């Protein structure tokens, strides 16, 4: 196929694979520990960093990560305190990030250009630098998970029990929140602020239809995520529609097909 010969499409395929691996690990923790809406707050808060980065003329990924990190750590810290409700903290970071993002991106001279990419994603714009960043984050995440897998599983399902077993639960939870922020920022160019939460949840939900093993969920969600990414890329190419939205659409279709099979086909 002619499209496969283009470098930008090859970069998109490689970037999709790395993003699927990273999102499968982070997303499995997020879904298992019931922190799905934290990812929504973090992703939308990162848009404030995007706007400020565009306004100041520096790499928006840097400022987006700072905002994402602040919101991820801040929300997790707030969830451990009685004075602040977790959903309220998520709402504050969510609204603040989007508000600052809109204001500063509007004031930026690049307002009409880069804004759409960060909001809705464009996987075909992935460059070598984006792939290297994704590769570094994915490698670090895989190493960290391999070392602390047992502790991560215990924390995801019962953090209090993990603490009673003298596991450094607090430190590991904060590390995972940092990886959440890193993964979200690294995948902004793929699906954008609006849709990035889907990459961290839908493939995992699909995997959970077939297994309740934490390790298998990671493996299956990576496979489902990459299948959706590749399908979405070709759908975007042939129909000339935004790649980020087409990837998420394919992910939802895969989920619905698997759920239908689960409901109507008995093993």
Main sheet: strands, sense, barrel: none
Order of helices and strands: HHHHHHHHHHHH
Based on CA inertia axes, which overall geometry fits? globular
Reading off the top of the CATH hierarchy, the class is best stated as Mainly Alpha
Helix proportion: over 70%
Number of spatially distinct domains? 1
Given the helix and strand composition, which structural class is it?
mainly alpha
CATH topology: ABC transporter involved in vitamin B12 uptake, BtuC
The radius of gyration computed from the alpha-carbon positions, rounded to a whole number of angstroms, is: 18 Å
Name the poorly predicted regions: none
* Strand content range: under 5%
Distance between the termini: 37 Å
**Overall pLDDT score:** 85
Count of helix runs: 12
User: Assembly type of the shown chains?
Assistant: single chain
Supply the CATH superfamily name.
ABC transporter involved in vitamin B12 uptake, BtuC
Please give the CATH architecture: Orthogonal Bundle
Tell me how many strands there are: 0
Structural topology:
Elements (H helix, E strand, L loop, with lengths): L6 H26 L3 H21 L3 H20 L6 H22 L3 H10 L7 H30 L1 H6 L4 H18 L1 H12 L2 H7 L5 H26 L3 H22 L3
Helix pairs in contact: 1-6, 1-8, 1-11, 2-3, 2-4, 2-5, 2-8, 2-9, 3-4, 3-8, 5-9, 6-8, 9-12, 10-11, 10-12, 11-12
Summarize the structure.
The protein is an all-alpha fold and 267 residues long.
Describe what this molecule looks like in 3D.
By secondary structure, the protein is an all-alpha fold. The chain has a single domain, classed as ABC transporter involved in vitamin B12 uptake, BtuC. It has helices at about 5-30, 35-55, 60-80, 85-105, 110-120, 130-155, 160-165, 170-185, 190-200, 200-210, 215-240, 245-265.
